[in-house]
Structure formats: C-alpha cells, structure tokens
Amino acid sequence: MLAEFIGVVLGDGHIQQFPRTERLIIVGDARKMDFINRYAAITKVLFRKTPMIGKVAASNAVRISIYQKFISERLGIPSGNRKNFPYRMPEWIRARRAYTIRFLRGLYEAEGYLCVHLPTCTHNFGFSNFNQHLLGIVARALRELEFHPEIRHNAIRVRRKSEVERLRKLLHFREY
Question: Backbone dihedral region of 3: left (phi > 0), alpha (psi from -120 to 50 degrees) or beta?
Fold first, then answer.
C-alpha cells in the first residue's frame, strides 16, 4: 500500500512546507471518484487521520489533503517542486517485485493513460512526466518486469498489444 501511495504522490501529489507542519495534497479528477475514494482511504490508513476532500472551484479537480508533521521525511519525497529532483526508487520497493508493481500502479493511476484504437490496431499504454529521473525509474522497472518500453522525452510507452494488456492486468489499471 505504501509503495503505491508513494507512486501516486510522485505523480499527482504535492507536499507543501509550512513553519510548523506540512500539507500533502493529491489532486484527482471529479469524474473519477473511484480514484479519489481509493487514495483518500489509503491516506487515512497510512496517516491515521481522515483527509479533507474538496472540489476546486471552476474546475473538475478534487483535492485530497492532510496536514501533519514530517510527511516528506516519512515518504522520502521532498516538499515543493520536484520537476528536476533526482528521485531514486527506495531500495525496499526495488527489492520486491510486488512492491515495484504497486509503485508503478500508483504512478500509472496518477499520470498514466491507456489508448486502444481498434481500426488501426494501435495500442498505447503510457506514463507521462517531465522528471527525467522518474521516467528512467519507470523504464527500468518495466524492463525488469520483462516489458519493452519506448522512451520519449516526457513519456514511457508500452506499445505491443500483448504487453499492453499484460501490463494493464498486472497494475490493475483503473480497477478499483
């Protein structure tokens, strides 16, 4: 559960630093309440605190948020902008295949997309992010799981039809 949560925070989360506390925000789409409910429940379990859930005015965004001390330290994710942060996958996640899969699930639930165009038989399961370190981690993890990722400047894509379906099932993508 923690590995998946770290993945979601790296994708759709933000940790804001205040003088005496920190705030964790995960932003989701109001049309995907299963996502909101899943990660609000995981937040409650991990932090032993019920998160606030609120719709952002004039948008489809919904925020899951909590205030607590040492959030970034406990998750191993820095506060503030992480666009260029040299993130490294924690060794405890990398050491166990199941944790790596859960970590990828969180990342893909936050920043992933699945496109299947039947007329051209085109399959595309991608993860998009501007942090090159995070893209490298995803590509490496996919190769270790015996996929053949295509690497782009801001995305990692799996394009082989059989691999797209296998990865979707492995990650339980959008199955809540």
Answer: alpha
